[in-house]
Amino acid sequence: MDTQLTxxxxxxETVDTSLMALEDATWVFVRARPGLLTLARQIVGNAHExxxxxxxxxxxxxxxxxxxxxxxSALLRTTTVRLAINVVRSAWRRRESCTGPSxxxxxxxxxxxxxxxERQDTVERAVLLxxxxxxxxxxxxxxxxxxxxxxxxxxxxxxxxxxxxxRQQVARAQRRLxxxxxxxxxxxxxxxxxxxxxxxxAQTGDLGHLERVLSTDASGRR
Length: 222
Known about the structure:
Elements: H1 2-44, H2 47-63, H3 72-96, H4 113-133, H5 136-147, H6 152-159, H7 163-179, H8 188-204, H9 208-219
Helix pairs in contact: 1-2, 1-3, 2-3, 4-8, 5-6, 5-7, 5-9, 6-7, 8-9
């Protein structure tokens, strides 16, 4: 009898803990949702599809090991950007029968070597798309704003631009991605450097190194 009571108590405690974790996750998502929806609309250009993107982001967020997430806001924005660009890429494929990279989804911290290698490949292809499509300033502003939720004044400070110019860079980047401009030559060393910085920032939330890489590329320094 005592054993049965103990097991029942433990079961209730487990349920209570799970409910509390879900409530916390819901609170975080509800706070972030308006910004995520705006972000999705900017990328897909369609309110209905943007809602679908946000719904999928919520499902991914529920399935995420949130105990390993150091920056929930950055993770949610990264997921939203990836899903939204996937929607745009799907539209391109339907219209032009073309294929291309998508931004990576957050990695399972318990994933095996094969999964990690596959995710690394996804990041490499996504960064290649951005480098082929956008100028260094557009790319830097776009990644910081749409990928990691930086305010325009902070991006302007990092890139040594005015706030107005920074907004223009993001708008131009969005337009070029939507219009499917590609073909710029890509330096393999710069590509590898940005891949490593992007991959690290997306998975750990440590954005300092990514800021430095983007700032250096945007200014033309090496």
